[in-house]
Design a protein that fits this description.
alpha/beta; Rossmann fold; UDP-N-acetylmuramoyl-L-alanine:D-glutamate ligase; 2 domains; 12-stranded mixed sheet; 7-stranded parallel sheet; 19 strands; elongated; binds ligand NPW; binds potassium ion
Length: 523
């Protein structure tokens, strides 16, 4: 599913009207109608139902006027509380304000004070205060109105986006409405799918409002990874495939106390469909990993009494990497100076597509410019916000404040593919392309989940997926496996090996035709 910023949606609106001759008032009619349909579907129709529409003076309010008119025709009582003088309403919104029966609209430029009882008596409150036109922090009467709506205890349906959410980032601009359902128009906005906006919006429905297809197709946006997008990436496996044709991955991982990271990365690569996995570990750890893993082939590296990789392991590792389809570097490596040195040497010497995670990233953070020496070879980094902050030399809050910007900046600057992990992981390509992952749940906030993701992405690279496809499908599959686990056992107590073991089921669900309507509801 494509998602766009609020500004892009506003320019799409202008293009549809200016270049394609679609009247703005027709777009508004369809937008209001889609909201009214969603409300009817959720609450039914007929007498005894009351929708209180809290409207601003812009076109978001205009949609609210249409909703009032349509619900009234369906037997609802649908009063509009307009936070402006009627003369302040202009354009298409004014046309629809005119169409309302007298007595339906109460003009309240001073705010909602005194309207609390009416609002509390509603079946549903419709939030039509602010949409994509929000241009500053919300205060004054709009801010107070948001507080009243949030305190009323009645289900709220947000028009386009909860008022107060920045459509381009999902940030709360001062304060924002909390809705049960959001009906967004033409395409979802970034603020509908990124936290905290996505959580405040509740369930999201994206309604077709008759935006010309060319306008939709040509709008610059990014991909929101849902089941449909994942299905579009997965390739069928040949019925005559053999282990050699499904990719041979090399995992370089492990140090004392971190054998689990190595085992999970290797096992997850197998669970994500790798044909063969070789696991290179410091020699002293080999007996542990021999017994921890079954299908993966372990390769002891370096002196028998060493529990971490030494710089001198370069030659041995390059020779085992020869002919491998993908290499995963980093899980549980530790940060011993000789290991860091080894990672630097491997960065410039390894030819195979390379996934770098965890301590591998910590080593890269010391000298990120080494990534540029991999030019022409494929490199994919999977940092969490802490690792991203170290890579960029900024603070974690700075990363969290602009996750898309940070991921895009690093990926383009160092010509790598990058997955910035966290709720709604961001995938960035060296050309600046962005995807946002839609799967996953809070049960994944435990140790080892990153090792599983590394294995999954390495397996997909090894099977020949393009790195941007491997990263997008990898993060979706990883989160989707966790979602399947959560359906069965809930999110508390979920561990990384649960997700690892659910990977085949997730892959199967994505490759077998799904029953029921695909629909446009994403959560
Ligand atoms: N795009 C489409 O395809 C379609 C879009 N449609 C709908 O139009 C919506 C966009 O409408 P829009 O552009 O009129 O902006 P909107 O969100 O109503 O707000 C602007 C008003 O709010 C004000 N204002 C701004 N910030 C504020 C603040 N912090 N605190 C207080 N006030 C603030 C600002 O006032 P100003 O600052 O300019 O004086 C201005 O008056 C979109 O979300 C969708 O619902 C559909 O009808 C059909 C198809
Ligand atoms: K709104």
């Amino acid at each position: 599913m494509k998602v766009v910023t609020g500004q892009v949606m506003q320019s799409m609106d202008k293009r549809a009207i200016g270049e394609f001759g679609v009247p703005g008032v027709a777009l508004m009619e369809r937008a209001g109608c889609a909201c009214a349909d969603a409300i009817s579907k959720r609450f039914g129709d007929g007498a005894g139902r009351k929708a209180v529409i809290v409207a601003g003076k812009g076109n978001n309010g205009g949609d609210g006027f249409v909703i009032s008119r349509i619900l009234s025709q369906r037997g609802w009582e649908a009063p509009v509380l307009l936070l402006a003088a009627p003369q302040a309403v202009t354009g298409d919104a004014a046309v629809n304000l005119e169409r309302l029966d007298s007595g339906v609209v109460t003009s309240l430029p001073q705010g909602l004070a005194g309207q609390e009882e009416l609002i509390k008596s509603a079946t549903v409150v419709v939030d039509a205060l602010l949409g994509t036109g929000i241009n500053s922090e919300v205060g004054g009467v709009y801010g107070e109105a948001i507080d009243v709506v949030n305190a009323c205890g009645v289900p709220v349906v947000a028009v386009d986006i909860p008022s107060g959410i920045d459509a381009g980032s999902g940030r709360v601009l001062g304060r924002a409405v909390r809705a049960e359902l959001t009906v967004s128009f033409a395409l979802a906005k970034l603020g509908n799918v990124l936290y905290p906006g996505t959580e405040l919006g509740g369930r999201l429905v994206v309604a077709d409002i008759g935006m010309p297809q060319a306008v939709v197709d040509e709008a610059p946006g990014c991909e929101f990874m849902d089941r449909e997008s994942a299905r579009a990436i997965i390739r069928p496996r040949s019925v005559i495939a053999h282990k050699g044709s499904n990719g041979h991955c090399l995992v370089i991982a492990g140090s004392a106390g971190k054998t689990g990271a190595a085992a999970m990365a290797a096992q997850s690569a197998l669970r994500a469909g790798a044909g063969l996995v070789s696991l290179a570990v410091p020699a002293a750890l080999n007996p542990v990993l021999e017994s921890k893993t079954t299908e993966a082939m372990t390769i002891p590296i370096g002196p028998e009494d060493k529990w971490h990789f030494l710089a001198g392991a370069l030659g041995e590792l390059l020779s085992v990497a020869k002919g491998k389809d993908a290499v995963a570097l980093g899980p549980g490596l530790g940060t011993a100076p000789s290991t860091v040195y080894l990672v630097h040497s491997l960065l410039t010497a390894l030819d195979a597509p390379l996934v770098i995670d965890a301590d591998g990233l910590n080593a890269v953070a010391v000298a990120p410019e080494l990534l540029l020496r991999r030019r022409g070879r494929l490199t994919l980094l999977t940092p969490h916000p802490g690792e991203m902050a170290r890579l960029m030399g900024v603070s974690v809050p700075e990363v969290e404040a602009d996750r898309i910007g940070c991921a895009r900046d690093f990926a383009t600057r160092f010509q790598v593919y990058l997955v910035l992990k966290g709720a709604r992981s961001i995938v960035a390509g060296p050309d600046g392309a962005i995807a946002i992952n839609g799967s996953g749940n809070p049960g994944m906030a435990t140790g080892g989940m990153g090792d599983v993701l590394t294995g999954v992405i390495a397996a997909l690279l090894g099977q020949g997926y393009h790195p941007f496809a491997a990263a997008r499908l990898g993060v979706f599959l990883h989160g989707y496996a966790a979602d399947l686990m959560a359906e069965e056992t809930g999110t508390r107590g979920m561990v990384a090996t649960d997700v690892q073991e659910a990977l085949p089921r997730a892959l199967q669900r994505l490759t077998v035709a799904e029953g029921g309507a695909a629909g446009t509801s994403i959560n």
